[in-house]
Amino acid sequence: MKKFTYFTSEFVSPGHPDKVSDQISDAILDACLKDDPNSRVACEVFCTTGQVIVGGEITTSTYIDVQDIVRNKIREIGYRTGMGFDADCGVLNSIHSQSPDIAMGVDIGGAGDQGIMFGGAVRETEELMPLALVLSREILVRLTKMMRDGEIKWARPDQKSQVTLAYDENGKVDHVDSIVVSVQHDENVSNVEIKETVIEKVVKPVLEKYNLSSENIKYYINPTGRFVIGGPHGDTGLTGRKIIVDTYGGYFRHGGGAFSGKDPSKVDRSAAYAARWVAKNIVAAGLADKCELQLSYAIGVAHPVSIKVETFGTSTVSEDVISEAVAKVFDLSPRGIEKSLELRENKFKYQDLAAFGHIGRTDIDIPWERLNKVEELKKIVSNK
Questions:
Q1: For position 194, what pLDDT does the model report?
Q2: Fewest beta carbons within 10 Å, which of 118, 241, 267, 287?
Q3: How many CB atoms within 10 Å of residue 289?
Q4: What is the structure's pLDDT at 1?
Q5: Cα dihedral 48, 50, 56, 62 sign
Q6: In order along the chain (384 residues), what is the average pLDDT of each group of 10 residues?
Q7: Using one digit for the tens of pLDDT, what is the confidence trace for 152-188?
Q8: Taking a C-beta distance cutoff of 8 angstroms, is the pair 342, 23 a contact?
């Protein structure tokens, strides 16, 4: 009899209350960077029934209409009158400028804070991401699109998914064990219709896309039986509370720093993107099948305090050799990262990342997903 180990990842929709807060924070960041690429932003949002509070530190030369940004984002997400939270909610603006004590270290090219950041890549999907996270995300991408397109008329914005995979004794994915989907819904739809629609029209097409069987899966669709009250009306939302959803679904470690609402001088964000960039290129170069990179920084210091490569026994060369190659190929100073990853050039919207994840995206051209350092890594390693 086969023995399996199990691993689970979850994902949440753009209408989840914490994600509402993330998207508003990043929409404000986008507005600042659009006219002033050197803006310093640390924007936090709290949302609840009929109320959004925007706070934090912003130093910028441009004007941003916080009220307009908040209301437009809520409309875009899909909250409407009668849900207890909509674009006509109260908006309280409590923003002030960045502390000069922090600015002093950033102005000279140093990190905006101390901290540890992780990035990873694994050969489970074409985008070199953990499969459980990808499946959880794809389910909600499809469900949200069908809701917005009117194909599923009873669905409301607040949605969650969870996928459990069974791994064999060799650490390979054997099958999908269980899937959980909770979707906020209108009053007048039956549980039977919800379950049938979600399994047949949402989940199964996602499994087919990844050539996975939909047989013998344990399904838990709206397991409480009712989910009418949701979003910020059902639970408060706060920027930065979905850091595992934003990254690898728990498959790799996390340093604890959130992304949304922070300009690229904050290494919580920029260095985590860079760590993904490095790890993905290492795996794509064939140096390992699984890689996790840790970076650490000190406030006001221009280069990482430490760089650690972990390949979980899958590397084709020693981890020391890979670490040396990383140090030669990648500029991991805060300013080097900003330049290499085009973090202030307005080529993508941070608010889009806040909606469906910052890592492993294939629908947006984001620089840290590019495999543009593969050949350099191979060359340096081959010369060792």
A1: 97
A2: 241
A3: 18
A4: 77
A5: positive
A6: 94 98 98 95 97 96 95 97 95 83 57 90 98 98 97 97 97 97 95 97 97 95 92 96 98 97 95 98 98 95 93 96 96 96 96 98 97 97 83
A7: 999 999 999 999 999 999 999 999 999 999 999 999 9
A8: no
- The whole-angstrom separation of Cα 370 and Cα 277 is 7
User: What distance in Å separates the CA atoms of residue 154 and residue 148, rounded to the nearest whole number?
Assistant: 11
Q: Token pair of 95, please?
A: 């923003």
Q: What is the rounded CA–CA span in Å between residue 352 and residue 231?
A: 19
pTM (predicted TM-score): 0.95
How far apart CA 64 and CA 30 sit, in angstroms, is 10
Angle made by CA atoms 255, 261, 262, in degrees to the nearest 5: 60
8 A C-beta contact, residue 287 and residue 324: no
- The span from the CA of 246 to the CA of 280, in Å, is 17
HEC-encoded secondary structure of 243-273: HHHHCCCCCCCCCCCCCCCECCCCHHHHHHH
Q: What is the DSSP letter of 99?
A: P
Q: For residue 170, which phi and psi values (nearest 5 degrees)?
A: -95, 5
Q: Answer for the pair 46, 52: CB distance below 8 angstroms, yes or no.
A: yes
Helix (H) or strand (E) holding 281: helix 267-284
Handedness of CA 265, 271, 276, 279 (dihedral sign): positive
Q: 319: which 2 tokens?
A: 């981890």
